[in-house]
Amino acid sequence: MSVCGRFAPTPSGELHAGNILCALLAYLSAKSKGGKFIVRIEDLDAARCPASSAQNMLDMLGALGLESDESEVWQSKRTDAYRAAEGILRRKARIYPCFCSRAQLLAAQAPRLSDGGVVYSGRCKDLSEKETELLLKKKTPCLRIEVPNRVISFTDGAAGEYSQNLATECGDFILRRGDGVYAYQLAVAVDDCESGVTEVVRGIDLISSTPRQLWLMELLGYSAPKYYHIPLVCDFEGRKLSKSEGDGATKLFNKFRTEEILGALAHAAGILSKNRPSSLQELITIFEWKNVRTDKILLPREFL
Ligand code: GLU
Question: Tens digit of pLDDT for each residue in 111-154?
């Protein structure tokens, strides 16, 4: 099977050094195995994703040589594929409308998920037809999928063993929002599989989403990629970088040459033993997952 890696940013702001490092590791992991690398723009939520942000991200990746080997996939243009997947899922699992507001979800005081979400209480699961009809007059519901009481486990290439019980640690989750936008979990599962992605490199904050995606892939009849969840990148004081807190990487390009940026990131991640300029070509030849840090990735002081 030919190797295919991907980088899938949400264009809601500027890429920061952590995002670039994730793209770099995804690229190196695929290229070091002779594979290809693709970029997917996760612009599902049009209101949060101005076109200028996506272009700015592509320009930044291009400046570093992290270009997509195929034309980029734009999630905003993939609604038909997600609708088709919803059709298949309807035959394999129970999908039901949910009218709960955020306030109701929080008030139900269900257990909290590691990604900040709430395990759904099942409040709308058993609405009668009549109740549903009445509620439909007032509100467009989101769609939830009922999860089985089942533990999904996988071996992460960077983070090790990971398990989650879908029913108790996740709960019935949203497939499509009330405004008609398909949810991240469904879109990512469909896109990774339909693009032939064989390995996913992304931040550890998304590891708790992976069991949901693996389960959706199983229902859709796809084979799953290999996952590598990497530590979040922090500044030298240990603060996590954020797109919305002025950590955008454009300023790095004014201060450093691309080889300096690549070398510093590769060093921070554990791939290069010294912080020195390096090229993608060199990094491809030396890249090995066993050298990538799994605890903390700290950026050099002059990077912020
Ligand atoms: N779009 C997500 C983000 O920018 C990443 C999704 C993924 O890699 O699966 O955080």
Answer: 666 666 779 989 999 999 999 999 999 999 999 999 999 999 99
Is residue 232 lining ligand 1, measured as CB closer than 6 Å? no
Helix (H, G, I), strand (E, B) or coil at 156: strand
What's CA 57's distance to the chain center, in Å?
16
The pLDDT of residue 109 is 63
Q: How far apart are the CA of 200 and the centre of ligand 1, in A?
A: 10
Ligand 1 midpoint to CA 205 (Å)? 10
> Does the reported pTM lie above 0.85?
yes
The type of residue at 87 is: G
For the chain, report the end-to-end CA distance as a whole number of angstroms: 40
Q: Which helix (H) or strand (E) holds 211?
A: helix 210-220
- Residue 206 Cβ < 6 Å to ligand 1: yes
212 lines ligand 1 (CB under 6 A): no
Pocket test for ligand 1, best of 188, 208, 212, 228 (most atoms within 8 A of CB): 188
Instruction: Decide the pairing of beta strands 160-165 and 142-145.
Output: unpaired
**If you average pLDDT over residues 16-38, what whole number do you get?**
97
Calculate the alpha carbon distances from 198 to 1, 189, 195, 239, 301 in Å.
8, 12, 9, 32, 35
- Round to whole Å and give the CA distance between 225 and 207: 14
